[in-house]
Design goal:
Elements (H helix, E strand, L loop, with lengths): L5 E6 L2 E6 L15 H13 L14 H5 L3 H6 L11 H14 L3 E5 L2 H11 L7 E5 L5 H4 L7 E5 L10 H6 L5 E7 L8 H11 L2 E5 L7 E2 L2 E2 L6 E5 L12 E5 L2 H11 L12 H4 L11 H11 L2 H18 L6 E3 L6 E2 L5 E5 L3 H10 L16 H4 L7 H9 E4 L8 H15 L1
Parallel strand pairs: 4-5, 4-6, 6-7, 7-10
Antiparallel strand pairs: 1-2, 3-11, 8-9, 8-13, 10-11, 12-14, 14-15
Length: about 425
């Protein structure tokens, strides 16, 4: 693109210099389909089975059925045990389980539903406290309310923007039951320290992996490090079918509860079950359709290729912005492999002015969160959790969302030229 900054405009015979944006064409949309998704979607469509789910388990033993590994469920005959979904749902679950190294994957209709399922599956009870980073999408906290959990908001690390473990430990109380670790922007949270804290305190760990499929900690995929990991399939995410989610776990008790909560689990409960087994089995309809699952399978198959593009685009921007000392990119800890979803930066000078200047050059940047979770009206009147450091970070935060293909290195060059132009 041209770096010409001005042009002449004639009005009533007079010439006026008018600024010309560096970039005038939009970046590619986040939904990036290929022929593979269409092929699988039409196969699901032509099958005439657009859901595949049925409530009720027939003559099967619920404990046995709901703790079958996802690899085994995939091999069941198509019309057997439809409590667990249809052919494409089972295929998607087996793919997620195998990729993350987990025994179980449970597909659902959104990551919000998946977070609620995970909260119920770990046995969350009314009044139980859940440590949640204050910087995330609000469903990370509100999903805990589904089973009466009380979010307790924790500061984020100023460099990784993920949960600050020291502040989490300081906010432990006798009522603390779980920690939610968010892999924000595709950067893994400090899972080694988070899991160690959880084990010392007897807490469950839920990983919010909505923005991070394919990211790793010490060679292990995110989602496999806690008691449950939750992925998003919504339209903007790295794998999408429009709407959807997946929960992964290695714990058969968590898998059983997730499967029951997903699909009217009260109908599968037996009189002889213990109180613990009956807890939180009143189910919802959190089921994923076959049409959605087929599209998600096609997207899943391309995750590595698309993550390579995302990571290359992010690293190009980070390297190109290194000379601007006012800009601090989100840090990825040693031993972790990111799967960049967006590029998050802090501007230590004047974030809002920078965002306006870049927008004028055709480069859309998001100026931080409208409000952090502890500032939400649902929580602010009762929350005891002050997170002043994170509020200050959010005032400096901006991010670029168009790392995904088919956006290319040439598109990232436009971003870098725009930064150079407005900061020169």
């Amino acid at each position: 693109m041209s770096d010409v900054a001005q042009t002449l405009l004639s009005v009533d015979g007079a010439q006026t210099r008018v600024s010309v944006p560096l970039r005038t064409r939009p970046f590619a949309a986040s939904t990036y389909p290929s022929p593979r998704e269409r092929e699988l979607l039409l196969d699901a469509y032509d099958s005439g089975e657009w859901s595949g789910f049925r409530a009720g388990i027939g003559e099967r033993d619920a404990r046995e059925l709901c703790t079958l590994p996802s690899s085994v469920v995939r091999e069941l005959p198509p019309h057997e045990s439809r409590f667990l979904g249809g052919r494409y749902v089972r295929m998607l679950e087996a793919l997620f389980a195998a990729r993350t190294g987990c025994t179980y994957a449970i597909a659902c209709n959104s990551a919000t539903s998946g977070l609620a399922m995970a909260a119920g599956a770990i046995g969350l009870q009314p009044g139980d406290e859940v440590l949640v980073p204050c910087m995330s999408f609000h469903a990370t906290a509100t999903a805990m309310l589904a089973f009466g959990g009380v979010p307790v908001f924790v500061e984020v690390d100023p460099e990784t923007l993920c949960l600050d473990v020291a502040d989490a430990e300081a906010k432990l109380t006798p009522r603390t039951r779980a920690i939610v670790a968010v892999h924000l922007g595709g950067i893994p949270a400090a899972m080694t320290s988070i899991v160690a804290l959880a084990r010392r305190a007897g807490l469950a760990v839920i990983e919010d992996c909505a923005q991070a499929p394919g990211a790793r900690v010490g060679g292990r995929e995110v989602g496999s490090l806690g008691d449950a990991g939750v992925f998003s399939l919504v339209e903007t995410k790295s794998i999408t079918c429009g709407e959807g989610g997946v929960v992964v776990t290695n714990d058969p008790r968590v898998a059983m509860k997730c499967r029951l909560i997903r699909n009217h689990g009260e109908g599968a409960a037996e009189e002889h079950w213990s109180d613990d087994e009956l807890t939180n089995v009143v189910g919802m309809n959190y089921r994923l359709t076959e049409l959605q699952a087929a599209v998600a399978v096609g997207q899943f198959e391309q995750l590595d290729a698309r993550n390579r593009v995302r990571n290359a685009n992010a690293r190009q921007l980070i390297a190109g912005l290194r000379g601007f000392h006012r800009l601090v990119p989100q840090r990825c800890d040693d031993g972790c492999d990111p799967a960049y979803f967006v590029l998050k930066l802090r501007d230590r000078d004047d974030r809002d002015q920078l965002v306006r200047a870049l927008a004028a050059e055709g480069i859309p940047m998001v100026p931080g969160y409208r409000r952090l979770l502890h500032q939400h009206p649902l929580f602010v009147r009762r929350s005891r959790d002050a997170c002043p450091r994170s509020v200050a970070i959010n005032d400096e935060l901006l991010w670029f969302s168009h790392l995904h293909p088919p956006n290319t290195a040439d598109d990232m060059d436009d971003v870098l030229r725009a930064f150079a132009k407005v900061l020169s």
